[in-house]
Every structure is written in structure tokens, then in C-alpha cells.
Amino acid sequence: MTRHVVKRLPVDTGISGWEAISQRRFPATVLDRDITADWLIIGGGFAGLSAARRLLQHRPEDKIVVLDARELAKGPAGRNSGFMIDVPHNLSSGEYSVADEASTKAEIVQNRLAISFAAGVAAEFGLPSETFDPSGKVNAAASDRGLALNDNYRRSLEKIGEDHRVLDADEMRRMTGTTYYRGGLYTPGAVMIQPADYIRGLARGLHERVSIFEHSPVLELSREGRHWKARSNRGSVSAPKVILGVNGHIESFGHFRGRLMHIFTYASMTSAFSQNEFGTDVTGVDRWALLPADPMGATVRKVTVNGRSRIVIRTRFTYDPGLRVSDRRVAGIAAEQRRSFDARFPQMESLPLEFSWAGALCLSRNHVPAFGEVEEGLYSACCENGLGTVKSTLAGMMAADLAAGVGSPQLDQYRNQPEPSRLPPEPFAWLGVNSVIRFQELRAGREG
Ligand SMILES: Cc1cc2nc3c(=O)[nH]c(=O)nc-3n(C[C@H](O)[C@H](O)[C@H](O)COP(=O)(O)OP(=O)(O)OC[C@H]3O[C@@H](n4cnc5c(N)ncnc54)[C@H](O)[C@@H]3O)c2cc1C
Questions:
Q1: Pocket of ligand 1 from Cβ distances under 6 Å
Q2: With pLDDT > 90 as the criterion, what percentage of the chain qualifies?
């Protein structure tokens, strides 16, 4: 009998501003009895909830159960910067995407498949434009190096015939209010989400037809006859087929150990301010979304709801194989984010950063997902390589297709990827990965 005992549960350090300002519209239910189902999905992030919706589309009569260790949207799915990116950046130089031209084109098709699935969620469940905004995004450059990277990116976009527009310093200032940026590159296909609202909106749309249990960690998963049995604190679920949407925590279920890199990234959100509080034009138009021209720089977004705006800044990456980081680390990085924010908006030094938090990503060395049927009836939709709003949505869709036996050329292509490659043993991996990250962050300079 196979039995996986889960020894490590998710820990989310700091309060996500997105979650704090999002309103929950349905009650959280804890699993408190033993139940059976046709399908069990473990993890209620992008992967898990997308798998649930996809299964519902394939098998509307089946009983589907989702279990999450935490409350939905309190984990990474509700604490990211909300860029659903279609065009990987930087296409040629490998700064964001590592692929050649043909694979880049294939990746764009896959990303768009996931984005259109998410657009279906927004339409079906009535998500407003503050939650799901197909506005596109800008790669912002604040230095010579950033401008050169954007130019490189522009050339690769041209080569594959992707729509884009170059923005000069003046246009950047009109959009963001700050003179910090010297140029930008706009691509129209990205969607900007309020991540906590999106996850809650998706779960709310599903919850009449899918049983979602929160605060219900899976502590043990065992194979009993033709079923898998997942035990939680106060109950259990038995199902013939299980999809794991737990990202890096798949290691706790006995798979892909020594092959996944647990990376944390960090963000802070200001308190709310009104447009005239700091003088008009200080922060530009109501909503904008900037990715750094150098991927190791700062992601910065402004959102406005009912005339009240907030700015969110995300910086830094750290490799933490223990899958948890301290409050002290979050506070230290929040102080750096304060400096990055003040450099961009010096007139707003008195505006507090109200929320600061960290969140886990999962990367593989060869940039592939941890995907497939890992044991009989047990499917993995994990390891999103840092862009899970899109990649985990896709992994969830593909895992549901695979498990339900619904074939497609997309699934064939998605399955046709190698396994995540092995990492060097610790402490070499720790030393190596953290040194490379830190070197690249320092090189990013003013972009950070
Ligand atoms: C600050 C920050 C900014 C980011 N910005 C972006 C961005 O702009 N665009 C982008 O695409 N991505 C971004 N990301 C990454 C994105 O958040 C993740 O890629 C995404 O959340 C991964 O989705 P997922 O469903 O695979 O995993 P997760 O969101 O991590 O969900 C996994 C779920 O599994 C649950 N779980 C784990 N173990 C168990 C267990 N034993 N029992 C039950 N449940 C369990 C967890 O509680 C969790 O809810 C960012 C991340 C951070 C932290």
C-alpha cells in the first residue's frame, strides 16, 4: 500500500494586501467528516481551482472535492502581482523565457489558452474589470541597461510578429506620474487581475457544484484498494482519482524530491490614497502595471477602486528550500521596497506601506512543470516556474484533461516535456542559487 505522510504544510509570512482588501462572499467550510467523491483536488490555487472548473466542464455529474490547507486566497494564489502574461519576456536573450523562437511561439499559444480559460471564468462568474482587466502591460526601463533589454525584447517581438508599442519617457510619466522611467514597451495581451478577488470569484462560482473545504490540510494520502484516501485533521476524502495542485509542496507527497527550487518573492502595498491627496499627476492615471525591463527588478502596479488608489511593489527573490521565511526577512525587504518606492514617488514619503508579505514560487532548473500521472490515479499539476497565474491555470486544465481521458493536441504537446532535472545537493544548491540571484539583483541596479 502506498502511503505518503505530509510533514510540511504551507506557511505564508506577512499579510497579503490583495487579500486584506478583498471581500469574501461565501463562508469557509472545514472538512469534518469522512466522505467519498469521484475526484479529489488537493490545493485551491490557480492549478487546483482551474482543474476543478475543467473537470466540471468534462464531467458535470461527478462529485468533485477540493481541499486546501489554508483559507483560499491567503496563499500564493492571493498574494501575487496579478500579471497574467501571454508573451514571455525576453524572447531572445533568455532573460524571462529560455526558449528558441519555435518554442516561444508554442509557449505563447499555451499562455493564451490559459488566459482565455481565465477570461471564461471572468465572464461566467461576473468578475468586474477591477478583478480581471485585459489592459496589457508595460515593461518599464529606468536605466541604460533596461532600455537595451527593452530594445532587445522589441526586436524579438517584431521577429515573431507580436503586437507592441514603444513608450518614451514622456508617455511613461503621463501614465505613472513619475519621471523615474526612461522608456517602456507595451504589449496588449496581458491581463491584470486582483489575485485574491479572482481566486475568491472563481471559488464562489464553483462552490455550489464543487465541495470546497478550507483549513483542511491533507496530512496523509494513501492508496486503499482502488481509491486514494486523504486524511485531514477532522475528516477524510476517498476518491479514485486525485489531482495535486500544491505547487512545490508536491515533494511532501513523495514526488519530484531534489528537483524543485523553492523561491520566495516579496511585495508591499501602500495604504489607500485619493488622487488629489498628493497633488494631481503624482501617480498618473488610475491603473497601470509595470514589469521591470530587467526581470530581477521591481514590478510596480497602481490600482484604483471607488476613487481610492494603492500602489504595490514587488522585489527580490530568495531560495529557501525549507519552504518558509521569517517575519524579519519580510520586514527587512519591506524597508528596501520603501526606498524603491520613494525613489519613484518622492512626494509620497509620508504614505505608509500598509501591508508587506512573502510568497512561495516553484522553479525547475530546466523550466518545465512537474506534470503527469505520478502514480495510478494520482496526477500532478505542480511547479509553475514563477508565472503561476497563467502556468498553473494551464497545468490544472491539462491535469483535468489527462485524468478525465480528454485528449487534445494541446495536451499531447504539454505532456511531451522532460521531467524537472535534478538539483545539486545542499548546501551547494543553496549557495549557488542564492549567489546567482543576488548577483543578478545587484546588476539590475535602478530597475529594482
Ligand atoms: C509576491 C508575488 C508576486 C507574484 N507575481 C506574479 C505575477 O504577477 N504573475 C504570475 O503569473 N505569478 C506571480 N506570482 C506567482 C504566483 O503567485 C504563483 O505562481 C501561483 O500562485 C501558483 O499557483 P498554484 O495554484 O500552482 O500554487 P499555489 O497558489 O501555491 O496554491 C497551492 C495551494 O496548495 C495548498 N496546499 C499545499 N499543501 C497542502 C496540503 N498538504 N493540503 C492541502 N492543501 C495544500 C496551499 O495552501 C495553496 O493554497 C507571484 C508570487 C508572489 C509571492
A1: 6, 9-10, 42-48, 67-70, 75-77, 79-83, 217-218, 245-247, 249, 265, 267, 314, 359, 361, 384, 386-390, 392
A2: 87
> Helices in 345-427 by DSSP H: which ranges?
388-404, 409-415
CB atoms closer than 10 angstroms to residue 31? 25
The verdict on whether omega for the bond into residue 90 sits within 30 degrees of 0, i.e. cis, is: yes
Q: Which domains does the chain have, with CATH numbers?
A: 3-447 (3.50.50.60)
Residues 6+ apart with CB under 8 A from 346: none
Judge whether 144 and 198 are in contact, CB under 8 Å: no
C-beta atoms surrounding 71 within 10 Å: 16
158 CA to middle of ligand 1, Å? 32
Cα angle 136, 100, 429; round to 5: 90
| C-alpha 165 to ligand 1 mean position (Å) | 31
Q: What is the pLDDT of residue 91?
A: 53
* CA 325/CA 358 separation, integer angstroms: 8
Are 361 and 276 in contact, with CB atoms under 8 Å apart?
A: no
pLDDT in tens, 352-371: 999 999 999 999 999 999 99
Q: Are 197 and 307 in contact (CB under 8 A)?
A: no
Query: Which amino acid residue places its CA nearest to atom 19 of ligand 1?
Result: 388
The predicted structure's pLDDT at residue 99: 62
Residue nearest ligand 1's atom 20 by CA: 388
CB of 24 within 8 A of CB of 198? Answer: no
End-to-end CA distance of the chain: 50
pLDDT of residue 102: 81
Question: What order of strands is seen across the sheet that includes strand 83-84?
Answer: 83-84, 191-193, 132-133
List, in sequence order, every beta strand (DSSP E) within 225-377: 227-231, 236-239, 241-244, 261-270, 273-274, 288-292, 299-305, 308-319, 353-363, 370-375
